[in-house]
């Protein structure tokens, strides 16, 4: 994951390969969200969720090393950026909490959220706490690995432009979140929350391209998840 862009120009074959890898990875989260939130498929949704997580972890690494023949690395944080990411993350927390305090009752249907989480057992304190720990410390790292390292990097290779890659990757990041949000938030709330996800995705992508480490970008992402799932805990379990 440490190999970075050195030459934005790609051959026709290289562009096709990068685009195919991008598509195969980008569709997986949407498949999982549709199965779980749209069809509410219960145990099948859990199975699809697990399969797509394996897909999202394995395919980018396979594509990077076997298809493109690039070396493996752990995305080492060599260029700093920790305080920048933490500062942006704290700012995101304040914005999310502020939006919830001002607009929460208008945006979120508590009963609908409960009904979505109940079939997969996430309405009890122990299971919801375990899920939150998974999303903050594992899933958000996986999302940085997928959306920032693989997808953002592929878009940077394809477009040759940093900001184009930032905004396109933020759009891809937002798409499946929007589908999920539509299931328990009204249209206005979905728009506001999706805008927030897009801005967050753009921030995470910028941090990654600026400092070239998913671990640095993860700090801001984890802060955002803590705020979001803290609100979910408040709605489902209470304080």
Secondary-structure blueprint:
Layout: H1 12-38, H2 43-67, H3 82-107, H4 110-117, H5 125-159, H6 162-182, H7 187-211, H8 214-236
Helix pairs in contact: 1-2, 1-5, 1-6, 2-5, 3-7, 3-8, 5-6, 5-7, 5-8, 6-7, 7-8
Describe what this molecule looks like in 3D.
It is a single chain. The chain is mainly α and 239 residues long. The chain has one domain (12-236). Helix content is 79%, strand content 0%. It contains 8 helices and no strands. Helix 7 packs antiparallel against helix 8. The protein is globular.
Keywords:
239 residues, mainly alpha, 79% helix, 0% strand
Summed up, the domain count is 1
SSE-based structural type: mainly alpha
Distance between the termini: 40 Å
As a percent range, the share of helical residues equals: over 70%
Please trace the helix and strand order, writing H or E for each element: HHHHHHHH
Main sheet properties: none
Average pLDDT for all residues: 89
Entry summary:
Helix content is 79%, strand content 0%. It has helices at 12-38, 43-67, 82-107, 110-117, 125-159, 162-182, 187-211, 214-236. The longest helix is centred in the middle third of the chain and has 35 residues, at 125-159.
């Amino acid at each position: 994951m440490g190999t970075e862009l050195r030459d934005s120009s790609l051959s026709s074959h290289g562009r096709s390969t990068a685009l195919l890898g991008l598509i195969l990875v980008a569709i997986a989260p949407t498949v999982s969200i549709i199965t779980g939130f749209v069809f509410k498929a219960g145990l099948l949704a859990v199975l699809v969720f697990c399969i797509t997580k394996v897909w999202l972890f394995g395919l980018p690494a396979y594509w990077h090393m076997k298809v493109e023949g690039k070396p493996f690395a752990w995305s080492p944080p060599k260029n700093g950026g920790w305080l920048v990411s933490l500062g942006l993350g704290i700012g995101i927390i304040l914005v999310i909490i502020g939006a919830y305090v001002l607009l929460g009752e208008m945006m979120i249907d508590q009963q609908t959220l409960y009904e979505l989480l109940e079939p997969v057992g996430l309405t009890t304190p122990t299971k919801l706490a375990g899920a939150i720990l998974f999303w903050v410390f594992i899933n958000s790292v996986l999302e940085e690995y997928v959306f920032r390292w693989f997808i953002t990097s592929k878009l940077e290779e394809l477009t040759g432009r940093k900001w184009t890659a930032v905004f396109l990757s933020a759009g891809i990041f937002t798409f499946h979140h929007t589908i999920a949000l539509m299931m328990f938030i009204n249209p206005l709330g979905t728009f506001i929350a999706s805008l927030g996800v897009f801005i967050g995705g753009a921030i995470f992508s910028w941090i990654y391209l600026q400092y070239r480490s998913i671990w640095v970008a993860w700090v801001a992402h984890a802060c955002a998840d803590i705020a979001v799932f803290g609100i979910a805990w408040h709605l489902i379990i209470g304080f």
